[in-house]
Amino acid sequence: MGPSENILNKTNMKKTFFQLISFLLLVTITNSCWSQAAAREKQNIDFDWHFHLGDITDAQSPGFSDANWRLLDLPHDFSIEANYDKTNTGSRENGFLPGGIGWYRKTINWSKNWKDKLVNIEFDGIYMNSDVWINGHFLGHRPYGYLGIYYDMTPYLKDGKNVIAVRVDNDKVPSARWYTGSGIYRHVWLHVTNKTHVGHWGTYVRTTDVSSKSSNVIVAAKIVGNKNSTINVTSIIVNKQNREVARQSQQLTLNDDTTLVTQKLNIINPALWSPETPNIYYLKTIIRKDNINVDNYTTEFGVRKIEFSVDFGFKLNGKIVKFKGQCQHQDASCMGTAVPEDVWHTRLKQMKDMGCNAIRTTHNPFPPEFYNMCDTMGLMVLDEVFDGWNHAKAKYDFGLYYKDWWQKEVKDFIERDRNYPCIMMWSMGNEVPNYGKEPLIQKGIYEEMHSLDSTRLCTQAWALDTYIDIAGFNANGEGKGDLARFHQNHPGMAAIGTEIPHTRQTRGVYRTRTSYFPWDKEDPFKGETSASHKDRLMSLPDLSENEVFTDFDSKYASGYDNQTRRISVREQWKQTRDFDFFMGEFRWTNFDYLGESWGWPGRTNNYGIIDLAGFPKDDYYLYQSFWTTKPMVHILPHWTWPGKEGITIPVVAYTNCEEAELFLNGRSLGRQTMSKDTLQIVWQVPYQPGKLEVVSYNNGKVAAKETCLTAGKPYQIKLSPDKRTLHANRRDVTQITVDVLDEKNNFNPTANDTVYFEVTGPYKLLGVENGDIIDLSPNKVLWRKTFMGKASLVLQATQKAGIIKVTAKAKGLKQDAITINVTK
What is the pLDDT of residues 25-37, one digit of tens each? Predict the structure, then answer.
């Protein structure tokens, strides 16, 4: 079947993170009820590892002394702890932070519960080129840094103390085109099982004949055990209330050391999964041998029906849905790539609140907890396995190892992720150059993915034909007429915007004249383009004849929707909205990410709609006006412009309402209708200090308001934590927003004051940030300059209960203090 026929004919089958954790705890308790003994144990071993930065001889030896090494908890990224420096190798790509070699060691004690059982260790991610030992015995090497690693330690364990040693080698950078981090930057687990058990990532759950009345559930389980032994396999499906909804049992004799067991169940009146109703089911695979439970294995899955077609794009559960998506890198600025669950949850919630319904993992698999949250929060995922293939796109990237490792990585990628209902399709790669042999390489990945998962289709960023199900557009879809010409030339093929549009913004910075890129090499922000590039530009009129804002550093980008590669946010959404064959878009990007910069001193390229500190830029609200229905309105720019009295400033409103009216100091400046063509409302307003207010209307009635007040001089600091209570679990995080206010408590959007923090109590500093792309201050210190009035301090709980007190001081400003309660 060709790609077009595949599209046309093939029909495939927490509301918060904290709800997820509560339910998984309930499932764990239920496991104990179902089993006569602990048939399977999964233990987190993140805490109390010894770490040494730099290479060292014989550190894998059990007798080696690590007493002088640093004691720390995982996840850990050692690159983010260094200073930004222009001389660091891989500078531009890696955000001017270094790579390096690091060693980790941990001692675990033998448990009597391990007798006659299998003990495996799983690393969710080590970046990169990892080597792992247990008691001096080499377990294995893995170059790729984005997927889980699973080793059997059983033959080498002994009574008493057992030493795990890990060497991480990210010394040769750039090892990617963006900041990667370095170290054991994801969780680590011990898995203890009986010799007869469900294999690692050993279940595959498919739903067929899905409707609101019923759904078939096809379960394939990989059973590991002694050949010719007789077992009973029971599949039990429970809903999120832990109520059983289906059960199937069978007795069989294992025909090999690994046997694939298939069972078919049916759910009556299933609760379907969608972004609006993220309903999750849990499959319990129970193995009994000699009337004893020998394994209990839980698989999270969902019931939903997905369809792709050139006629309607994408359907979920029979309803046409547009992907309102965002591309995301996995670092979190001052925390690097060692991102706590609380931070992941906050970021994904920001996406949901904006109206986003989908995330593209760029350009690599993400940690398991990310997919768990997308499952339970209701975010669809375009899951991407690689950036490039056999040719290194960065000097030392995975392309150097691709030939020997690609099949292992693709297999692990699909088997790890294929049960998550949030994943709608697979991405084989990103902007892979056409080197002649690439179609054959693409064919290998395509066939491997489809052999491992028959329920989803494959796309690829910036790939329009050959071995692909859905055409993927990046910048190649941003030019004038690109999408229309594609549809004319490929009338039987559906498409998606895998990375489109590319626009830049800096929070609090504005320019009224339109600019495009690529830019002049000497001044990348000058706005000059080649003639061929100009021919493809989507028309974007200036907001004023002469530039109004001339005082900003040229390295910053504009907060208006007018600094782009070829197409604006608004023009791209109109294409997505209006082309039936085009099933959605994934904007580049949601959060500013470290690396892939234009050069020193830029830590990032400023593509995000949320800055490095986690603060939304104006485009966040522009997307919210497209993608949400709850009445909202947002105005830009801010209204604190001393020295510009009498100068006409373009004031823009974004709203999902029918009309909007602007008031300055109580005087109406006009009421305008929101046009589906312009997707914004503009007033030309001579600046005078005071109160600027926008009011939006539906059916002639007030629906939403937003006010900007002219701020006085910086007078005081305001601290606002997102959590005031933490648990003493070494994981909970509070993100504290720092605002500079005037004497009347109005936010000052121009303040750039250096704030010093005094912190006491049981805490761990995760970092400080302000969103300024050219601020090269260290990440792990207790001070930070505010940028456009704001900064952020991120703290994590330790194992101790108590009170964390945070005091913020700055020269000439009134200080502020808060307390955070840390409970057992």
Answer: 434 433 333 333 4
